[in-house]
Amino acid sequence: MRSSKMRSSRLRRPVASAAALALVALGCGTAAAVEAPAANAAAGCSAVYSVQTDWGSGFTAQLTVTNNGTTAITGWTVTYSYTGNQTLSNGWNGTWTQSGKTVTVANLSYNGSLAVGAQATGIGANFAYSGTNTAPSSVTCTATGGGGGGGNTVTVTNPGTQTSTVGKAVSLQIAATDSGSGQTLTYSATGLPAGLSISSSGLISGTPTTAGTSSVAVTAKDGTGASGAASFSWVVNTSGGGGNTVTVANPGTQTSTVGSAVNLQISATDSGRGRP
User: Who has the most CB within 10 Å: 46, 134, 150, 254?
Assistant: First the structure.
């Protein structure tokens, strides 16, 4: 009897395997979904450029690389260009090279592998320059490994330094291009002045509430995980009296005599109605 049960058990196993093979051969959708969950994964990264210190004849630049794709990556390369005569002196936490005005930074062995959402920080370099130290208009990050990011290149147009006033509404549309056709870009931003926000379509709007200067970084990402970024400054000034203009009428040169009373009415106008 034991021998019979064992034979019966052995006979059932091939049957179960054959049934499973039949399901695969018939194209069972459930089985296919389980076997290839990573087929739609996409690799992508973005980089934010900032200046840590500037002493007039040189400066320290810093990069922060983020894996904003849907799969882990094993490496990254950041590329950007200067418009001035900035010249690379030395760099760290990355392989820094410069050809003309174009700077390229590649990961090192210890900071290339990034999980989804992880960052590589402390990537920096010293540069020498004369004249004006203008930040690059756009920064491109290309991921390697993972799903490949589709090979698309996203370029964000740098809007330049923005100036606004506390209490006055702001509306700024950020633009970007994608080398891949038919891609929808999704925008995000860090460092916006208090009171401002960005929509997924790239519209920065709101009313600034606090005066000061902010370093803003805007990132655009497509459906494959490819992304690009641009960094710029945003200056918010105080309200300055609500924008009204007060004009005092000059009474001209006045002449008076010692011991004689003086009576002179000064007049002025205000562009704001109802202002005393």
Answer: 46
Q: Which residue has the higher pLDDT, 23 or 70?
A: 70
pLDDT at site 17: 37
pLDDT digits 0-9 by tens, 239-264 = 865 556 678 888 888 888 888 888 88
Cα–Cα distance between 222 and 183 in angstroms, integer?
Answer: 6
Query: Is the four-CA dihedral 185, 191, 196, 197 of positive or negative sign?
Result: positive
pLDDT at 2: 41
Contact 50, 61 (CB under 8 A): yes
Q: How far is CA 49 from CA 156, 167, 259, in A?
A: 13, 29, 71
Q: Of the ranges 87-96, 136-145, 159-168, 238-247, which one carries the lowest mean pLDDT score?
A: 238-247
User: What domains can be seen in the chain, in order of their start residue?
Assistant: 46-237 (2.60.40.290)
